[in-house]
Amino acid sequence: MTSMTPLFSPPRRWSVAVLVVLAGLFYLAFDLSFLSHRGLASTYLTHIRQSEISGSACVANLTLLQSLNITRPDQKSVNYAQLCLAPSFTAGTEQKLSVQQLDIDLPELRSIPFEVGSDTSSILSSSSHDLDTSSVQHSVALPRVPAKRPDASHILFGVATTVKRLNDSLPAFRHWASGNGARIHAVVESSEGVQETLQRAEAMDIKLDISESTAKMDDRYFSHIAMFPSLKSPNTRWMAFIDDDTFFLSMPALIQMLDRYDPSQPHYVGGLSENSDQVASWGLWAYGGAGVFLSTPLMDELYKVYDECFAVGFTADWRISQCIYQHTTTKLSWEQSLHQMDLAMDQSGFYESGRQLPLSIHHWKSWIHLDVVAMATVSRVCGVECVLKRLRLRDGWILTNGFSIVQYSNGWSGQDATVERTWESWDGKHNQSPGANFLHSLGPLRAKDEKKRSYRLKAASVDGKVVRQFYVSHDNVEPNSVIEVCWHAS
Questions:
Q1: Alpha-carbon distance 123 to 20, whole Å?
Q2: Phi-psi region at 296: left, alpha or beta (left = phi > 0; alpha = psi -120 to 50)
Q3: I want to staple 363 with a disulfide (CB 3.0 to 4.6 A). Which of 99, 309, 341, 451 is the partner?
Q4: What does the mean pLDDT of the chain come to?
Q5: What confidence score (pLDDT) does residue 29 get?
Q6: Closest Cα partner for 381 from 18, 84, 99?
Q7: Tens digit of pLDDT for each residue in 307-325?
Q8: DSSP E strands: which ranges in 43-200?
């Protein structure tokens, strides 16, 4: 039996508090400089400006808009509109509504000049640039947000990655792993930069441990089985294998899903590929990007046959499945809300579907580039259940909260359960039988609306009690246009 133990662990708060603060300030400055250069500063600011939301009003701020780098540097003006919303929390509000109606229109776009040193609030309120809807907050009914943070201390997450990719993933990890007791163990290829990464995670209140290994990525992933006896705590009930681009939208919902299983019994829980061609080729097993959850009794069984299973080779998530099927009687429990996201190119139909909030998504920084931190930022004022919630305006525009604002050319209202099949097949072309290989996971489907108008979320920021979302035109109908959706905490 080969075994590895963690080489690095987080610095103890009582012994290095001052160092942690100084290191945190240093890396904060570095991250902001780096992210500002990349045009991503606003999304990271949602995590570091403040721990609680308080103060500030929902007033247009073009200086902030310019600073987000979501417009061209040479742009002298912007077509701009602002929609202000306020959550209204009600006990017993239905959480699975396909779309909620709002009796308002999308505000009219106005051309606003970028004037250096100008008072943007007076510009917006002047007669030539009157945005009379910017100060009106429209109420949105939402389920009451639990006041208490979830306890995820019984879940141990394992990931194999590089130090750089781990650092890139920390802001996303923070959304679901900060301050709730969840533990993450990463196996990286080099120790360079590890202590700085641990200090950065500590500043984000993420419980992170790191081990070093020169093994291949899949072998490092699989090695969590060998390390499990030394990694687990008396409270550990689940081992979750994840990729560094696995993202959990709601930790309370994830815990609720796992609570349906008896952790004293062997359980193998995960998601299939959305593409049945993949399933037909490789079989029924939990795909790693969606998250693979093994109960402690099952992990203990696999530990006993680790060397034999390690020799099988191939991808680590497939290897786990073969080890389970060959050496135990446990079978896969398929959780359909755990998503591998094997959807090529345009995934907008999935996110705009109005289906129940996914437990996990994947491929957000590989197959596509989706700013999941910006997407989830609105949860700061309205809870995780409002992320991706659809709001249909009176003039037919549909806001998918944290993703897009769209108007369908065919007048589709969002009242049915169909998913627009926007993604492509592996060969880059749509199948003759539209979406047949995705029906088992995402059906019913409808054809792609090639003429729909769309704005996509490009950045989000937190300013006191306000979360600002900036949606940028994604078609050529209204170029250089930005719609700000301003959520004000009640």
A1: 43
A2: alpha
A3: 341
A4: 82
A5: 41
A6: 84
A7: 999 999 789 999 999 999 9
A8: 77-90, 100-101, 110-113, 137-143, 155-160, 183-188
Residues constituting the chain: 490
Given a cut of 60, whether residue 47 has pLDDT beyond it is no
| Burial class of residue 246 in the structure, from the number of CB atoms within 10 Å of its CB (0-12 exposed, 13-18 middle, 19+ buried) | buried
Residue 270 tokens, joined: 């995960």
Only one residue has tokens 């929609």, namely 83
Return all residues near 365 (Cβ < 8 A) that are at least 6 apart. 168, 245
Report, as an integer, the average pLDDT of 424-443.
71
Model confidence over 455-490: pLDDT tens digits? 999 999 998 889 999 999 988 777 779 999 999 886
Helix (H) or strand (E) holding 420: strand 419-420
Q: How far apart are CA 323 and CA 308, in angstroms?
A: 8
Question: What contacts 419, CB < 8 A, 6 or more positions away?
Answer: 349, 350, 353, 355, 442, 443, 444, 445, 446
Q: When comparing pLDDT for 399 and 59, which is higher?
A: 399
Give the model's pLDDT for residue 70.
Answer: 75
CA angle 195, 200, 204 (to 5 degrees): 145
Q: What's the average model confidence in pLDDT over 216-237?
A: 97
Strand partners, 469: 460, 485
Strand 332-334 and strand 268-270: the pairing is parallel
In 261-349, DSSP assigns E strands to 268-270, 292-295, 332-334
Q: Please state whether the peptide bond connecting residue 444 to the residue before it is cis, i.e. omega within 30 degrees of 0.
A: yes
Residue 384 per-residue DSSP state: G
Question: Quick one: how far is CA 408 from the chain centroid?
Answer: 25
Residue 173 CA to residue 43 CA, distance in Å, equals 13
Q: Is 253 left (phi over 0), alpha (psi -120 to 50) or beta?
A: alpha
Q: What is the DSSP letter of 436?
A: G
Please answer whether residues 344 and 428 qualify as being in contact, where contact means their C-beta atoms are separated by less than 8 angstroms: yes
Task: Tell me whether strands 183-188 and 268-270 are parallel, antiparallel or unpaired.
Answer: unpaired
Q: What is the pLDDT averaged over residues 327-349? A: 96
How far is Cα 173 from Cα 157, in angstroms, rounded to an integer?
A: 11
| Cα angle 401-176-247, degrees, rounded to a multiple of 5 | 70
Looking at residue 144, what is its pLDDT?
65
pLDDT of residue 484: 94
Confidence of residue 342 (pLDDT cuts 50, 70, 90): very high
Is residue 411 left, alpha or beta, with left meaning phi > 0 and alpha meaning psi from -120 to 50? left
From the CB of residue 411, how many other CB atoms can be counted at a distance below 10 Å? 8
DSSP 122-174: HHHHSGGG--TTTTPEEEEEEEPPPSSPP--TTEEEEEE--HHHHHHHHHHHH
Span 280-293, pLDDT tens digits: 988 999 999 999 99
